[in-house]
Amino acid sequence: MIQVHERLTVASSCPADNHMTTHAPKKILIVEDEADIAQLVKLYLEKDGFRTTIASTGIEALTLIKTNRPDMVVLDLMLPEIDGLEVCKKIRSAPDTALLPILMLTAKAEESDTIIGLELGADDYVTKPFSPKVLVTRVKALFRRLERTHDPKQTSYAYGLLVVDLSRHEALVDEKEIPLTAKEFGLLEQLVRRPGRVLTRDVLLNAVWGYDYYGTTRTVDGHIRRLKLKIPLLDDAIIAVKSLGYKLSDRAPQR
């Protein structure tokens, strides 16, 4: 284990990166109960132009997310009160935070928890012990990846042999149009915009049916089933995540 004073000495020599100076700094919530690790991550992120806040418990993290919404959460799995997996699940279950980027901090011995965390919707992970410079690089890469994924100007998405053209409101497989209802197309749009991300039933209902919809979340399940029947290549690609919702595999099938 690296001693705290040694870590801080390394951090103080970390060169600043000016890439973030031309835009408003991104806010990152660091959720870590080990104070020395939290401070180390804070130092490196702030030297790269990010703004940071630290939470030492899962409860504190959820409160801060509500009161001072961050642009990303760096989330340790081993936390007091409620663990990181539960925090991740709560973030993904709430419509207003469902798409909040999450980068997990895990130990090598927690491989099964890492897999669960990714299934719950974490976007990436870094294994302890880690290089602070690598962590900053992963944070920046995640922001870049999500910005490309959520480009509001993008009107067409290719997923294997499937092409979803938003401007024409068409879904094509091998250049053959697949007739979809408005709700089926809306669900497909939400999924192809965010491959690999867990979208809860509440999030999908709000996005496709609207906030004033009074049906049940099981409405989503029926439409997903029909979507899979109409586009068989999505049968295995659309994955049900227990107690949450659905995600589209980030590995697109070719046949």
Order of helices and strands: HEHEHEHEHEHEEEEHEHHEE
Shape: elongated
Largest sheet: 5 strands, parallel
Number of E-type strands: 12
**Strand numbers in spatial order across the main sheet:** 2-1-3-4-5
- How does CATH name the architecture of the largest domain? 3-Layer(aba) Sandwich
Please tag this protein with its features:
255 residues; alpha/beta; Rossmann fold; Arc Repressor Mutant, subunit A; 2 domains; 4-stranded antiparallel β-sheet; elongated; disordered N terminus
Verbal overview:
The chain is α/β, with parallel strands linked by helices. It folds into two domains: 4-149, Response regulator (Rossmann fold), CATH 3.40.50.2300; 156-248, Winged helix-like DNA-binding domain superfamily/Winged helix DNA-binding domain (Arc Repressor Mutant, subunit A). It is 41% helix and 20% strand. It has nine helices and twelve strands. The protein has helices at residues 4-12, 35-47, 58-67, 84-93, 111-120, 132-149, 182-193, 201-209, 218-230, and strands at 27-31, 51-55, 72-76, 102-107, 124-128, 156-159, 162-165, 170-173, 176-177, 199-200, 238-241, 245-248. The chain starts with a helix and ends in a 7-residue tail after the last strand. The model is unreliable at 1-21 (pLDDT under 50).
